[in-house]
Structures are given as C-alpha cells and as structure tokens.
Amino acid sequence: MNHREFFFRHIAQTSPEPMLGNPLHIVRAEKEFLWDAEGKKYVDLISGIAVSSVGHCHPKVVEAVKEHASRFMHLMVYGEMIQSPQNLLAEALMKVLPPSLNNFYYTTGGSEAIEVALKIARKFTGRKKILAFKNSYHGSTWAALSLSSLEHHLNAFAPLLPGIIRTEFGSMDAIGLVDEDVACVVTEPIQAESGVNIPSKEFMEALRNRCEEKGVLLIFDEIQTGFGRTGKMFAFEHFGVVPDILCLAKAMGGGVPVGVCISSGEIMASLCKNPILGHMNTFGGNALACTAAKATLEAILQEKLHERAKEIQKIIQAVFESQLKDTCFKWRVIGAFGALELKDEAHAFELCRQALMEGIITDWFLFNSKSIRIAPPLNIDFNVLKDALEKLCNLSVKLSNK
Ligand code: PMP
Q: What distance in Å separates the CA atoms of residue 250 and residue 165, rounded to the nearest whole number?
C-alpha cells in the first residue's frame, strides 16, 4: 500500500496541506526522536502539541500499559464499576493538587473535559453566562468551540452556545465583566495558542477574587500547560491562584488518550442529581488510560521533569540571546514552552518547512502564525535541544536576510 496516497484519499482531511503538504509517515518514536518510513530521524520540538512531555514511549508507561492490558481493558461505561486504576490515578493526582481539587471526572480528551466543566458550572450556579478570553483555544466540540474567537469557525458553525462573553485576556477591564449573571470564567492560566501569553499575577489574583465575590466558578484549562510544561506541575502555581475546576488532558497519558475534569466533591455532585447521569461516556476512566496516566505522573515526579523544564527554559533563552541578538525577533518562554516570533507568517511557515528538511519538527500557533512553537519532551537531551535550537536560529536568520 502507498500510505501517502491512501492517507490523502481515505483519512478525513481537515486542512488542504497537512504539515505544509508534507505529512511525515512516522514508524517509530523514542524519547525526543521520531523515525520515518525511510529511516530518517527527526527531533521532536513540539511533543505532538504538548503531549509527549515524558518523551515518546517512556519505558515505565509502556510497561504499565502492557502489564495492565493482559488483566482487563474495558469493563463498563463511566462510573458504574469500581476500577482500581481510576482510584489509584486520583490518589496520585491528589498528592500534587491543592486539597480542594479532590473529585475526578475522567474523559477521553481535552474538549470533553471542558464540556463537563461548563455543564457543571451552569448546573451548580443555575446561571447561563460564560466568560472566556479571546485567543484561547478550549477544544473543537460545540460548546468548547463556542468559547473560541476563531471568527471563521464561529460563523461556519453558528448558532453556537448562547451567553458567551469573549474579552481581552490579561486586561483589568475584563474583571468588571464578571458579575452575578455569570456561571463561570474559563481560561488558560497561560494562553498557549496565542503564542505563550503570560498574564500578570495581579490579573490572575483579581480574577480569582472577583469570581469569589460574585459566586462565579473559575475554570482553568491546563490541557496544554499541565504536567510540568511551564516549570511547575501546573501553571496556576506561578500565580498562587487555585481554580474551582481544573481541566487536564494531553501530557496526562504519556501518549495514551485521557483527560479529566477535577473539582470539589460538592461542585462535582451537580452531575449526579436533577437529572442523574449529568454527563455520560463510554471510555472515560478507561483502565488502560488511567494506568498510563498514573505511570506518566510517576515518571514526571521521579525524574523531576517539571524541574527539568526550568533548565530547558534557560537553554532556550541562552541560545536565542546569543544567536538572535542582532535580529528583531522576539521570544517568550516559560519552562519548556516557548514561542519565537518571526517577521511574518510566510517566514514562520518557510522556517518550519526547512527545519523539517533538516530533521527538526516544529510548528506555529493557532492564533499566532508568525510565531513558532518550542515545546520539546521534558526529558530531551540538553545537547540535542541546543543543537536543534541553534539550527532553527541559523535558518531563521538566513531566511530573514533573503
Ligand atoms: N484546551 C487547550 C488549551 C488545548 O490546547 C486543547 C488542544 N489543543 C484543547 C483544550 C482540546 O483538547 P483535545 O484536542 O484533547 O480535545
């Protein structure tokens, strides 16, 4: 079979040119490396969009999944049977979370965790309005998409969820919009897809206080920033602010699909009455997924990968400072999460294309296509990282001189 031809003909396409028209056909992956069908090796600088934080095929995750797969996989739909992998994962997560976040609804991914959070917030508060921030991405299911500011998506799929207020992230003016009609505020503590947008501590504290004052639930989407990516286990720790509801996915499963919506028992009880079965799913809490997630969290803690992300930040900053000092490029970086802002979109696309030819995988951001993404596995070898970043810098300077 010609896999490329088959892919374009039979695998549903969502863009005319996936990976700039040259989608890789990867047959093996290990730690920060991927190999294509011709044996060419690539350095992964984006971790499959913040998923492979423990690297590809982490041996502990692989071992745990293999061991569990032979005992049982799927038993019953969500919530009807006691499954020890769900309990063990919740217990492990509680050790790294604030005490108020102690009740777990497992999902199949990030968008679903957001759907659950929105349903709980509406139900718990009895209010209809939802406040979200421009240039945040919360997922592609209908309600999650309704929070987005992707104009062409919103227009194409209208009518969307009513009652959404979209406002400027990080602006103190936004705080006043949080009133008694609002059920919840949904935000990423650090906006990912706008190109690593870090708000002030003052803004986050004001948002938290205002939500408290007005009885509004604060929902943090840490689907991209969670599990050590920003140099803390969770990005909210940078601001000393705890949400009422926390959504996680992506890096959580070490490559296996899993997500979770976390809150207090009191808030989560909204799913259990008037009506019962407030959110149903078949695969949420799947035993294999929970087993993988527990092994992933253990690997992060044992290898102190959230700490290592801080070392990665230093390397990214040092390379950019030395290699790009005579350029007008800007960059933002927190932990192992960086954005390098180039001249324009065409420059960013060409850089990604040429980097791929040199065996380096990177891409741009959904709401910021002139910036390229740096989000390597947290256990990437430091020399490999330095080398890849230097190559990226050389390429970007060469391209800007053209
Ligand atoms: N929130 C954020 C911040 C994300 O980055 C994403 C995925 N890119 C989602 C939600 C949606 O997650 P999923 O694709 O797993 O549904």
A: 26
pLDDT of residue 115: 98
Residue of the CA atom closest to atom 5 of ligand 1: 224
| Average pLDDT value for the chain | 97
Q: Which residue among 47, 53, 111 has the greatest number of ligand 1 atoms within 8 angstroms of its CB, and so is best to mutate?
A: 111
Q: Please give the radius of gyration of the chain, using alpha carbons only, rounded to the nearest integer.
A: 21
d(Cα 25, Cα 42) in Å, to the nearest integer? 11
Judged against a pLDDT cut of 80, whether residue 402 lies above it is answered with: no
Residues having CB closer than 6 A to ligand 1 are: 49, 109-111, 114, 137-139, 188, 192, 221, 223-224, 249
pLDDT digits (tens, 9 = 90+) for 1-35: 999 999 999 999 999 999 888 899 999 999 999 99
**Full-model pTM:** 0.98
Q: SS in 3 state form for 49-106?
A: HHCCCCCECCHHHHHHHHHHHCCCCCCCCCCCCCCHHHHHHHHHHHCCCCCCCCEEEE
Query: Span 128-140, mean pLDDT?
Result: 97
Do residues 237 and 247 touch, judged by C-beta distance below 8 A? Answer: no
Q: What distance in angstroms lies between residue 49's CA and the mean position of ligand 1's atoms?
A: 9
Domains by residue range for the chain, with CATH: 3-54+304-400 (3.90.1150.10), 59-302 (3.40.640.10)
Q: 224 C-alpha to center of ligand 1: Å?
A: 7
Q: Which residue has its alpha carbon closest to ligand 1 atom 15? A: 110
Among 262, 254, 249, which residue's Cα sits nearest to residue 108?
249
Q: Which tokens sit at 312?
A: 């990665």
Q: What is the DSSP letter of 134?
A: T
**pLDDT tens, 352-390?**
999 999 999 999 999 999 999 999 999 999 999 999 999
Which of 138, 225, 261, 367 to probe ligand 1 with, by most ligand atoms within 8 A of CB?
A: 138
